[in-house]
């Protein structure tokens, strides 16, 4: 049986607006983040998209996003948290390690500074989302998480050049996947806000 995952990035936060590195550190949703998140909720209502269950990262910006999108109960999961950027947390984005185009990430660059490796984050995301989709009563679910960890999850299922050419993942983007035989199949990115 084919199941469906709607994987949403949280709304714009203060650190997004200020271009600060935001992984395990948190900042509140901006007025734009709140308004955009409500637009996504209205989109789901308009399209008659309902969820068996909803899940969020334990971080406040993701929980707040989910609560603005739907009023249904949800479960917070540490496995959906953002990448830990170690000592880079809260710093200006321009000091981020150099992106390696060959591997499509910064790899282990944050590890010497107390952060996670890209592979560890990707493995965690694949495991938690696979577990959720394998639950008997989960046919169509919503999960709210974070840009970098969602990107690494997506990179596990489609080639990097496809992501670069076809996937624009802004705040409040929703990636739709189908799931069968323990594999995720990327369908589309839903962007209802500017």
From TrEMBL:
InterPro entries: His_Pase_superF_clade-1, His_PPase_superfam, PG/BPGM_mutase_AS, PGM_Phosphatase
Single GO MF annotation: phosphatase activity
GO cellular component: cytoplasm
Top-rank taxon, per record: Bacteria
Residues at which substrate binds: 9-16, 61
Pfam families tied to this protein: His_Phos_1 (PF00300)
Classification via PANTHER family: BROAD-SPECIFICITY PHOSPHATASE YOR283W-RELATED, HISTIDINE PHOSPHATASE FAMILY PROTEIN
Protein name: Histidine phosphatase family protein
Organism: Companilactobacillus alimentarius DSM 20249
């Amino acid at each position: 049986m084919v199941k469906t995952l709607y994987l949403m990035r949280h709304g714009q936060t203060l650190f997004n607006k200020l271009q600060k590195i935001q992984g395990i550190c948190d900042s509140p949703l901006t007025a734009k983040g709140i308004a955009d998140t409500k637009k996504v909720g209205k989109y789901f209502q308009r399209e008659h998209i309902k969820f068996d269950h909803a899940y969020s990262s334990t971080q406040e910006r993701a929980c707040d996003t989910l609560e603005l999108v739907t009023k249904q109960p949800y479960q917070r999961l540490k496995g959906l948290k953002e990448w830990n950027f170690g000592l880079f947390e809260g710093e200006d984005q321009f000091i981020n390690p150099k992106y390696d185009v060959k591997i499509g990430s910064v790899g282990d660059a944050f590890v010497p500074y107390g952060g996670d490796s890209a592979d560890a984050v990707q493995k965690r995301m694949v495991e938690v989302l696979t577990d959720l989709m394998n639950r008997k009563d989960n046919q169509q679910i919503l999960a709210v998480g974070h840009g970098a960890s969602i990107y690494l999850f997506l990179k596990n299922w489609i080639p990097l050049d496809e992501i670069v050419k076809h996937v624009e993942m802004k705040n409040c983007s929703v990636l739709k996947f189908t799931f069968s035989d323990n594999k995720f199949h990327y369908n589309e990115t839903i962007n209802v806000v500017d």
